[in-house]
Amino acid sequence: MTLLIYDGTFGGWLTAVFEIYEYKLKDVVFAKNESSNSLLFSNTHHIETDPKKANRVLNGLKKHLSTHGITNLYHAFFSELDQIEENLFRFAEYVLSSPVNIEGDLSNNAVLNVRKAAHLTGKESHRMKAFVRFKLTKDNLYYAIVEPDCNVLPLIQKHFKDRYADQKWLIYDSKRKYGIYYDLEQVATVQLTFDSNPSSSKFLAEISDENEEFFQNLWRNYFSSVNIESRKNTKLHIQHMPKRYWKNLTEKIPNLKK
User: Fold this and answer.
1) CB 32 within 8 A of CB 7
2) 3-state SS assignment for residue 191
3) Quick count: other Cβ atoms within 10 Å of Cβ 252?
4) Could you give the CA distance from residue 31 to residue 33 in angstroms, rounded to a whole number?
5) Is the dihedral of CA 58, 59, 65, 70 positive or negative?
6) What are the residues whose beta carbons fall under 8 Å from the beta carbon of 24, sequence distance 6 or more?
7) pLDDT tens-digit profile of 35-78?
8) Could you tell me the residue ranges of all domains in the chain?
9) Where would I find the DUF4130 domain in this sequence (predicted)?
């Protein structure tokens, strides 16, 4: 059994697939960094992300998959489900060994698992597009804090770049401790560490624009005014807006239990 240690990027995973074939590695297990469990493996193989190797694998997959199939592969990678890299490799192995398109072969566990993972990530990225709530800082930067189940920032950055092209913004994933920052020209990945608790008065006082509290209250009042009590359907509401998102939603913060 061989432990493959890579950088956690999609390009790194593609490079790993290339080297599995290149070095004829068997019974592979993926790890995003050096693990204490590495001693359990007889062989450890470190992957250095190589764009040329990654592109060769990706181009090979594109010859056998539709555009939708490639998108599913990419989305599934960011699901962060247990053993997703191994499932993706088995999927890629099946794709590359078959003379026909295998995307519809749901009798194959790898195909089914990749489809499920892609659906999960797609659903989460769709929710993030709806649930991101920006706040304005003293430096005229709009920032939002999210905590998605899947690593969806790479999947939603184009949406927000297109929609908010005329303002600087930062979306910070407090679960994974990184964010995407738009400077009016391009989107970059940034590493940050700060108190991301949205109810922290000290945190808000330090970075927020002086009018931000006013606009937040305005939004809460609007939300309350359009919320017709007689038509309230709590079960349906939670289905479309799960409670795990509430702590980062402006309109929900007053209802959080301290």
Assistant:
1) yes
2) strand
3) 18
4) 6
5) positive
6) none
7) 646 556 668 999 999 999 999 999 999 999 999 999 999 999 99
8) 2-121, 132-255
9) 83-251
